Amino acid sequence: MKKGRELLVGSYRRLHQNTIHFSPTHFHQTMSHSDSPNRYSFSPSLHWNPQLHQYFLNAYGADHFSRISAALTRPSRYSCIRVNTLRSAADAVIEKLRPLVSNVSVAVQPEFEDVESNPLKECLEDASAPFSKCRIPGLDYVVFVWGSGPHRIDYGVAPPKEVIVSRKCAEAVLRGAQVYVPGVMACSAHVEKGDTVAVSVAVEQQGADGGWGIPMTRGTVLQGSETGNAYYFERNGLYIGQGTAMLSRAGMFRVSEGVGVDMKDRVYDLHSFHNLLEGEIFLQNLPSIIAAHALDPQRGERILDMCAAPGGKTTAIAILMKDEGEIIATDRSHNKVLDIQKLAAEMGLSCIKTFKLDALKSVCRRDDIDTLTDPCCNNAKNDVTNQVFDSPNLEVEIVSPIVTEGKDEKTNGRVYVSRADARKNMRRARNGPGRNQSVGGRVDRSKGFPPDSFDRVLLDAPCSALGLRPRLFAGEETIESLRNHAKYQRRMFDQAVQLVRPGGVIVYSTCTINPGENEALVRYALDKYKYLSLAPQHPRIGGPGLVGSCEFPDGYVEEWLRPGEEELVQRFDPSSPLDTIGFFIAKFVVGSKDT
């Protein structure tokens, strides 16, 4: 743990405690793709909102933020696997995975040909092996699987046949996925099944109205000339590899699912681990695993995971508790609650109870508390399917799978379905269920929980997600949108504080690099709730937080940490030697609320 922490000391830039004054200068770093010496390469550049870009320059400094911005456009060059220690062990998992990933170029990154120069070597059991157990105390059940890249891809002499994919599809491919049909935007003419195709990315562009989008209709045919080739110049330097077309051009836009391109040569070669060893392993970012450890859950405790979907941290907490105790996992989305249930069942965990609940309504209303027959919901059966509760504070919601809705008109005893409804259901089949539609399944709804009813609360808050990688687009976020995220997070934190008993613990985490959602939230919490205090975290491998404040042109001052507090939080920098996502963790101890 100490070695892992020392690894990052020289890699993080601390801000001094003096106030930083925000300048509205419209400095905006861009790269002209048309000037790129090699069209068929991968050299992306994030384009930020000008004012937001200046804010980050002030927070991190020009050189540091340039490195962060560059790191965000590429994936981590290793996969982090959390082993379900209730079912298996790290050594056993490594032996099972070894033959399954033998066809992937897993090797220590080319920059680290000398093992001793690998900045992660202090955290690894064997820095020269494609598989390695984590040596950080308490994390020996974490396995690193090395990938490789960036690779230079040989696309041949003649212009290759091409497939253009959406930005989200490309980000998944960079993490090891295949190109699935819904992600294909455009394709060269005369592409047939079995053809080798180059895969490029259509990244959102800003229109004349200031909005962002892709001015391209799905199914566009790419012509040979520059003038007739959609997004020709915009695709310079945005080629992510090549593969084999699994369908003809017509087939790619006729079917609604399946693999469109089987990727053979990738800029970044990582394994996806999709459907491998289900129930034994879970692919999870290292900082997320650290967040579960920071909570320090104990057997027999009652714990709340407020924004739990998809359940990675929930199941990590349950395993740390040896599946003994009670974990309440909530989310506002019906389908996401089902995802948590599914994952808990796969991993064989029985201490997790799931509920559909808006995090902003986590605390019971006073009249609900007065009528509770079972305020702690202890009469619930201890399984992930969640039986009906006797408490009036809970009600069951059963939603049937999507079906075609018929009209009143009938013909020969059959329900008439209009063409409009048929088209609507085809779109649902292609795009998946929408926000207000359920894939079906049983979910309990909760009206909230009484104050002081949990030993520990994890608030992994919804955020701007500006630390997730790879990221090829960031243009839509603005200063205003980031402030709105922060307001929402404060309201959720207010709920968390009420729910933790005196002597309990709150862990707050985000996957963003934005100080306004990280250090500013800590400042808000400590200033508003005098009985809260920051607590040390174990293990500690992240860097220090940002000290100081930022003054905006409208006079608003965003306060961050004060001297001495920076070492009590963990900030994971995507440009640091750990090569993780951007992430932030703060741990609070709740004192006597009477004071």
From TrEMBL:
GO biological process: RNA methylation
Record-annotated SAM-dependent MTase RsmB/NOP-type domain positions: 214-591
Annotated GO MF terms: RNA binding; RNA methyltransferase activity
Keyword Methyltransferase carried by entry: yes
UniProt entry keywords in alphabetical sequence: Methyltransferase, RNA-binding, S-adenosyl-L-methionine, Transferase
Annotated S-adenosyl-L-methionine binding sites: 307-313, 331, 358, 460
Active-site residue numbers: 511 (nucleophile)
Family: Belongs to the class I-like SAM-binding methyltransferase superfamily. RsmB/NOP family.
PANTHER family in UniProt: NOP2 YEAST -RELATED NOL1/NOP2/FMU SUN DOMAIN-CONTAINING, TRNA (CYTOSINE(72)-C(5))-METHYLTRANSFERASE NSUN6
Identification of the protein by name: Methyltransferase NSUN6 isoform X1
Protein's organism: Vigna radiata var. radiata
The encoding gene: LOC106765317
